Amino acid sequence: MTLTDLKPATVQRATGDSLLTPADLPPAGHFIDGSFVTSEAADTTEVVDPSTERVITQVANGTADDVDRAVTAARAAQPAWGALLPKARSELLHRVADRIAEHAEVLVRLESANTGKPLSVAQDDVDGTVDTFRFMAGALRATTSMAAGEYAEDHLSLILREPLGVVGVVTPWNYPLLMAAWKIAPILAAGNTLVIKPSEQTPLSTLKLAELLADIVPAGVLNVVTGLGPVVGAGLTAHPEVDMVALTGSVNSGRAVARGAAESLKRVHLELGGKAPVVVFADANLKATAEALRVAGFYNSGQECGAACRVLVEESVADEFVALFTAQVQQIVVGQPGAGDDVEVGPLVSRAHYDRVTGFLSRAAEAGVRATVGGAALEGTGYFIAPTVLVDVPEGAECARDEIFGPVVTVETFSTEDEAIRRANDTPLGLSASVWTESGRRGHDVVRRLDAGTVWVNAHLVLANEVPWGGFKGSGYGRDLSLYALDDYSRTKHVMHNHARS
Ligand code: NAD
C-alpha cells in the first residue's frame, strides 16, 4: 500500500448557523491604556476560519509607533500595579478568572471559529485559562523570598522579590487564549505590566479577553497590539523600555527574539517547538498505550508542541502495536467545529500550514515511508488532513526528525533500551517525551536518561497548573505554569543591613 492507495476519511460538516455573530467579535484596533484605539497602520491581516476558508474579520498590522504607545502605557502603569499588596493583586486575578468563566461560551466559539478546533478542545482551553488565573491568584500570595539571615558579622541579609517591570509577550496560533493566559497570569501575578502580541492568524480571543477585562484590570496593565512578528514582535524585543520578552512559538522566532534581545541584554523567556519521542517497550500495556496516543498524538490536529508525534516501539511488539494504534486512529472523526460532539480533529490553522504538512507527507511517500491510515489531505473546503500513521520510517527520516505540527504520527522500531534512548535523544529539541512500560524500575531509570523538560510514564500530554512546562535544548528556556513561572517573571534583590552598635 502507498500513500495514494488509501481511501481518505471524509470531513463531517456543520449544518447549522455560523459559530459567530458580528456581536461576538471584539472591537477592532489595539487595546492600549484601557481602551481600544485605532492603529497607526494602514494595512491589515485577514482573520480566516480554517474550516470554511471564510474571512471572519481583519485586524490591524501594528506599527513601531503602536508598540511604543503600548509600552509607554505599560511602563506608566507598572509602579502602581507592582506596589499593590499580594492580597489585592490576588483578588483582582480571581475576578479575572470569574469574568472569563462567565463568558466561556463566547470565548469557546471565537476560539473554535478562528482556529477550526473542535468545540470540546476550545472548551478545554477556556477551562485551562480560568484555572491558570486561579492558580496564579493563589500562588502569588504563597510565595515568599528566601529566609533572612546573618551571613556576614553584624549584617542582616534580606532577599526581596521584585517585578521585572514591563514584559513583551508574543504568542502562537495553536492555543491562542491558553498561551496568552500562561503568560498574562504569572506576569501580572508577579507585579509586572505587559504588552501582548497575539499571532496575526488568531488574534480574536486575546482581543476579546482584553474587552472582557477592561473594567477589572487597571488601564495600562494589560495591553494588546496586533500585527506581524517581524514588526510588532521584533519591536517589543528591541524596545528599550521592555524588560523581558516572553515568546511561545517556533524555533526560528525564538532565535530572532534572542538575537534581538541581545542588543539591550533584556531577559528572554522561550517556549519553542517540540518533537516528542514516545518510547514503547515490549512489556507496555499496548492497548492502553494505543488508546492514549490517539489522544496525545492527534489532539488539536497534532498542532501541539508536546504532541506524541514520534513513536519508538520495541521491534518484538511493533506489528501488534501498529495494528492497535491504526485501529484507534481510523476511528477519529474529522470535522468542522459544531459538526457534532464526536468531532475529535479539526482542520489545520491556515492554507500555508496545510501546504507545509502536505509537503511533509508527499516527501515521506517519495522516500518510501508507508501510511497505515490517512496520508493525504481531505477533499472539500477547509484545511483538513486525514489523521495519519506513518510506518517503515528509517532512522533520521525527515518526517521523524522535523516538527510537522499536524495530525501525523511516525512509528520507528528499536531493539535495545540503549538504542531507544539514544534515538529518542537524537534531536535538537527537548520539550517533552514519554516512556511506556509496566516495569516501575525501568520507567524511573529511563526518565532520568531522556533529555526533555517533561517526561511522562504511561501517560502523555497530561498537564497541570501546579507543575512547570518548558523545554531543554532547542525547545527553549524559561518555564510556564507553576511557581517556577512566577520566579521567571521576578527578580531578586539582596538587601543587607549593618546593625553593629559601635
Ligand atoms: P511562530 O514562531 O511562527 O509564531 C509565534 C509568534 O511569533 C507569532 O505571534 C508570530 O507573529 C511571532 N513572530 C514571528 N516572527 C517573529 C520575530 N522575528 N520576532 C518576534 N516575534 C515573531 O509559531 P506558530 O507557527 O504561531 O506556532 C507554532 C510553534 O509554536 C511550533 O513550533 C510549536 O511547537 C510552538 N509552540 C510551543 C509551545 C511550548 O509551550 N513550548 C506551545 C505552543 C506552540
Q: Brief description of this entry?
A:
By secondary structure, the chain is an alpha/beta fold.
Structure report:
- The protein has 502 residues and is α/β, with parallel strands linked by helices.
- It has 2 domains: 3-12 and 274-464, Aldehyde Dehydrogenase, Chain A, domain 2, CATH 3.40.309.10; 28-272 and 475-493, 3-Layer(aba) Sandwich (Aldehyde Dehydrogenase, Chain A, domain 1), CATH 3.40.605.
- Helix content is 38%, strand content 21%.
- The strands form 7 sheets. Strands 16-17-18-14-13-20-21 form a 7-stranded mixed sheet, sandwiched between helices. It has a 5-stranded parallel sheet with strand order 10-9-8-11-12, with helices on both faces. It has a 3-stranded antiparallel sheet with strand order 6-7-23.
- Mean pLDDT is 96; it is low at 1-7.
